[in-house]
Queue: 4 jobs
Job 1
Amino acid sequence: MEVLSRGLKKLTASNACQPYRTRSRSLPPSHLLFADDTTIFTNDSRSSIRNLVAFLQKFKNISSLKINNSKSSFLASSKMLLLRTHNIERISSWKARFLNQAARTTLIKHVLSSIPVHILAAVDVPIKMLQTLESKLADFFWGWSEGSKKFHWVSWRRITYPTKEGGLGIKPLREISAALRLKRAWTIFFAHKNTLWAKFMRSKYMINDSRESASQRNIDSPAWKGIRKLLHLVEDNSHLLLGDDNSNVWNDNL
């Protein structure tokens, strides 16, 4: 995949494939690699799409690595969570018929609840969508009888209580989403991490990595607005711990 990565960088550097841009001082990502998945960022010009497709075809011919067209698609942000919802529905429809309730509980904890996590880690998902996802999980938990949903004897909120409080310990998606939002705010404003995502967000919405310069405009993305709203919550629940005698309060990165 090193050849693919270098080729995509070269394609973007030569402007044969125009990068995805937001503002002039933002870092334009060309692609991301995770396990056996590749996400490529580009604008919607015909020349960029044409050159990108030609490059992928050339890569396939040279490497003999075939691109699975059935698993490849063009995604806009508004379609991503809908895709995850369809995945949950597809898994639920056939798995529920062959599993008892204990097995379905295990599947929810370790598989179904994890499907939307990557989306929740990146964007602020509307509460209505989270409620829809949890409704799908509840339907799967209780199962079906003769093609219709079984009665839900206990509310989903009660089921997601910790086991010590009488629940089954399934983590509610709304709490997962809130925790991930706080983590994003901590990563950008306090952790001083130089991950690609953190550098991109700082360069787009901040000046010289200063929290005081954080953008508060109406045209900012929903993801940034959600992070910005949590700044005071992170500040109120954070405190500094001094190190050993070698600490220097003037020069150390607090």
Job 2
Amino acid sequence: MFLADVLLVLGLLTTQRWFFIRSESKLPCDFLDSVDITDGVKTSDGKKEHEGIIYEPQNYGTLEYVYDSSGQKVQASNHVRGCVCRVKSCFYMCCSEKNILYNSSYPSCRNEPLEVRVNVSGELVDLATDPNLFKALRVPDCVATYADLSEWKMNRTGFVHSFGAVEIKQKEYCLHVHNEEEAADLFFCPEDSIGIAKISGIALSIPFLVATLLIYVCIPELRNIHGKSLICYILALTVTYIVLLFINFHSTMIPCSVLGYMLYFSVLESFFWLNVMCFDIFWTICSGVMIRNECKCFLYYMLYAFGSPIVILALALIFDFTELVPEDYRPRFGETNCFLRKNKWIEFG
């Protein structure tokens, strides 16, 4: 089983690279962090120049959809969008999803202020009129917390510095203007203390899972059908926890989307092995019949518990990297986080 997980990682790395070479349709950033650069000039080395900004090939993608006035994806002719916040300094404005207007190369926010003033070294500076900055929109994915002026400051590049116990991350803040003559308010997503406790719990669970695994592997009397099934279940659960740690510590050893596919597979595998163990207990108690050919029975269990996640993962890969299904029905691993896109949990979770 461990060998199978290793082969899965290698397969995902190879598959992702092959699909990346074949397709440019996946935007390497959030739609709200991109601008339409279709009319830009493409150089011989694959770079794209638009309005004086150079986009490397990894910073733009070709899309076949746009958002209509209601914020729904609709099919459209191919156009190129560049991840502007990867190549230019950005500052972020708060905007709710219902107030976003998709009516130009870059979305705007209803009642968007013309001036965005912040306190820079004791002076109110209008970021909106700075040609070196790009005003991007951000939809907070949490209950945003107001930051007091004593807890942060911003420099002329839109970078936020936080003070004291408050940590404001660059990807989790946005500005709100209530009066254009005064400094903008800053809101941010506070660090989740419960999340830290969960990560600690996961890290502490792994040694005990490994210890349980070693006990069942080393004692022959425990290696009956149920014991072997439990070994496979614990192994899948251990892989799940290890991948979760990689994701939460933002490791760059393995690409984010590959970690997402690994997590998806290992979670599915653990649930299928749990299903196998439940069925085995049910069958043993209800039938009262001793299984003579345990190897054949366990082979059937393996085909079910290991084969089913492979089929589901293969479908997710096909949906993600082909035009077989519309854009709205694709799982989009690694697009907004390392796992499923946030609005795809119901369909694929």
Job 3
Amino acid sequence: MDPLLAHITDTSVIIKMNNSQDLNVDCTVAEIRAQYDDIASCSQAKAESWYHSKCEEIKATVQNHVRSLRHSKEDLNRLNQAIQRLAVRSCELETTKERLEGASGSAKGKLAWLEAALQQAKEDMVRQLREYQELMVVKLGLDFEIATYRKLLQGEEQRLGLGSGAGSVAPGTAPDSGPARPLPPGADPGLLETSAPGGGCALCGSPGCASDFSCRGSREY
């Protein structure tokens, strides 16, 4: 209404007077009233047109805002859903992390246990190897003593004449051992030979052994 009032205020009315004639007040007032009615009608039409145009603009603006608000709500809902999915995924990842950390700790514990078991096995192997070497030394000594006592017994049998005949054994040879093999320099043929009956070394049992003190093997039983 303010633009209408401003338009009415700015409107000027021009009245022409003819002094040469008699004044007709009623006719003049009717004309002025008709002009004001026309001006008012025109102003009202303009005001109504302006009002309708403004209403349409406001309606269009409201509709645009409503659409924007609806789109914003849809975007917000999608973002909320994405946040919920990310939160669930974060919980799953946290659970997976804890499970992997537990598995890693268990694997580290198993690795430490295996390393300890390996170290213990190495120590046991070293101890058993040492014991085996000691046993081999004892066995080698026993085999040498057995061979020595055997040669002493053979020498005693030869001295008493029990080995005469088909089963006689010459010094430096063993029964059924084939041709006599040479003894080490300085060795007593009746006491220090380490040949076993049937051929082979009394210490290692190998037919190709030199049958002297250089033998370091052990006889397999």
Job 4
Amino acid sequence: MLNRGYSSSDTPVESIWFYSEMERRGINPNKLTFPFLLKACASFLGLTAGRQIQVEVLKHGFDSDVYVGNNLIHLYGSCKKTYDARKMFDEMTDRNFVSWNSIMTALVENGLAQYGFVEEALQLFAKMMKESTVRPKYVTFLGVLCACSHTALVDDGYKYFHEMEKAHKIKPMIIHYRAMVDILGRACRLNEAYDFI
């Protein structure tokens, strides 16, 4: 539990020290140990430490744990290693809602500099809807709308915004309205953006 506390503290690097201390004392990690270590690495952008933790994950046989996988995707996305995040996602045998959202977020956030990543996030959303039992939530649609904003897909943005409530019964929040205004603003459709509010 100390590991969990350190990973969310102002000094997340302490969780790495704590893990080293556990090893030194011969205390075996469990499946809850590694997600918190990876979360800590992501928070201080500790890519090297994260890769070392991934080696420990493999060594202890937790590489197929969905929570470990999700945190590796988050780590690589936070450290702008989008290809590594996507590779981790593709290799996961079990995916949940967090898995899909983590990879889409990594692609959108890192795709701001490269158009292809944002487009890939939208393709993954379509794949999730078609091939997965995972259903989108409000945060999923936020990522999709951000992707539409950065690729000037105004019509798609409208479609996803309306689909959110009509098809998925998710009431848009202020943040979704902001995303739609951003989509319209970037497309220089300021009157529509004003009317949308």
